[in-house]
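User: Let's play a game. I give you a shape written as tokens, and you guess the letters that built it. Ready? Here's round one.
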């Protein structure tokens, strides 16, 4: 996903131990439910799924969810969770949409949480999401509002420092999305700061 300085493999085993990450995923899942009609026969794609916190919170809302990530460590933890929980509609896939061809499948909904700021070419990935959606499908992106770089700190490079909502809306509309709108769905407290998290909804 364009990440060069963030060791997701090394952090996979401890990821779910952070209650804030669990709370964040549940809040975003509920916001998606409120904003988009989720049909129980629908197929969903989560990009940058990590250990699957968001998709576990949503798995009862879909017939199937394809969970994509570039981190083998994260996907190993996810596979163990799926087996333990005996969930039958979650399907992990190791795939980097930045570098690899698009899969042949299409989806009614694509969503991601805290992934977009790790992808350097925002317009390119938005265009790929648009291509993977069926007509009338929805894109749900949750990420940071624009910040001063303090969220990740100076040790992490090649990330966006959040997003200006109007700029992101223009980029999404530029690749063909319509009905783009934003809401604030969570706030991340970190080092005596509060970092708002938005949910962008866009339709093909």
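Assistant: Ready! My guess for every position:
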């Amino acid at each position: 996903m364009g990440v060069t300085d963030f060791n997701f493999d090394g952090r996979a085993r401890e990821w779910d131990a952070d209650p804030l990450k669990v709370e964040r995923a549940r809040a975003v899942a509920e916001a998606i439910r409120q904003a988009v009609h989720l049909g129980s026969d629908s197929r969903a794609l989560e990009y940058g799924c990590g250990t699957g916190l968001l998709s576990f919170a949503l798995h009862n809302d879909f017939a199937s969810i394809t969970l994509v990530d570039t981190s083998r460590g994260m996907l190993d933890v996810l596979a163990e969770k799926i087996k333990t929980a005996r969930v039958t509609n979650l399907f992990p896939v190791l795939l980097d949409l930045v570098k690899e061809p698009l899969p042949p499948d299409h989806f009614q909904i694509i969503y991601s949480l805290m992934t977009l700021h790790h992808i350097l070419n925002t317009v390119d990935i938005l265009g790929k999401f648009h291509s993977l959606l069926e007509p009338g499908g929805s894109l749900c992106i949750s990420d940071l509002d624009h910040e001063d770089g303090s969220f990740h700190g100076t040790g992490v490079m090649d990330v966006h420092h959040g997003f200006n909502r109007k700029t992101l809306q223009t980029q999404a509309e530029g690749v063909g999305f319509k009905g783009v709108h934003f809401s604030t769905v969570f706030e991340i407290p970190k080092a005596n700061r509060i970092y708002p998290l938005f949910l962008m909804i866009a339709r093909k």
